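Suppose a classmate hands you a notebook page containing two proteins, each written out with its sequence and a corresponding row of structure tokens. How would you begin to make sense of it? This section walks through that situation. The first entry is reproduced here exactly as it would appear on such a page.
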Amino acid sequence: GWRAYVDGVEAPIYRADYLFRTVPVAAGRHTVEFVFVPESVAAVDGAALEEEALSHSPEILEADAAVRRDEARLDLARRQLKPDFMWEAAYTNRGDLDPMVMGTFGLRLPVYRQRKQAQGIIQAADQVEAARLDVSAVRLKVVAQARDLLARVSRAEALARLYAEAVIPQARSSLESAAAAYSVGRVDFLTLMSDF
């Protein structure tokens, strides 16, 4: 939020006429500064930021769904090792002829168990492992992006503090010194402008 400083000392801010902000100042000459510091930037918690990024990342949700899909494929491949019973019923209306009713019952045996079904299980297990590694990679990527954003915020805060505490006061002091020298006639206008 907004912060106010009177001669470099933080002062309370009051609302005036519903829309404006005011700061009480004693009689005399003072320097009043209003500074806006977003609260979201001022209190960034790195661990909370990473946790939020991990819990709301669509890339992680997609990778988790791929793991579940591949686990279901692995379960199906394991079921292919067992015999499978089949049955079928059909009814056909043949117009003027008698209707036809048909039923079949069958048994599917995993005859090529070692050459076909076992290899399918190995492939499905490898796909599950690859999907889990993809989830880990995506999680690392999201954490790295969150840490990069946090580092950018830190750098921006440090730069803002540097400007507020060093660069701007030094420039103001230089300008005031040059303006004072110009007002007494010790320097010309071009010198005043170049010092600014």
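The notebook's second entry, a different protein, reads as follows.
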Amino acid sequence: LAAACGLFLSSTGTATRQFSVAATLLAGLAALNLGYALLSFFLARARWFLAMTLLIDLAVIALLVYFTGGAGTSFPHLYFAVILAGTLFLSPRLGLFLASSAFAANTLVEACYRYFSALHQPLPWWEPGSFPQLIPDTSSLLALLISQAAAYYLVASLAGQLVRGAFREKFLREGILQNLGDGIITTDMEGRIAFL
């Protein structure tokens, strides 16, 4: 997160109000996730808690994308972490839902930019007179949004396949071990016992 914040600062050249909001959001998100991690040790329903945490993270990343210039910046890449966490720790379906939500958030941010640009009005919560650098033509913006959506869905799908494969292997291994009357000893390539 600090590296992404530094990339934004170097791309703008100066610290603007949007940068300070972005830095505050990043620091707040890091503190919030640390608090969530500590609190999750005391909760009985950790899966629901993790799902809510991921949805809050998704919303904060959407705000970060809004305050740093939209889908053309490097911040939409943070959605990948949320999608992977949802898929690997909770379920492949949640990963696909988070991929859809990330695409919807990017599209909403860009639609907001276009709407206020067409009205020649300042964006909500932005400094008066400042406006993000818009992607010049609609076809380039559409191509960017579609490629980001495809990447989000691809990551969710591949991580889901990884999870399903790991569960299949685990159940197969457990089934074999439970149905054996004798023990199993596995060795490595040098003949040392690896599993008993």
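A careful reader of the second entry would note: The two ends are 43 Å apart (CA to CA).
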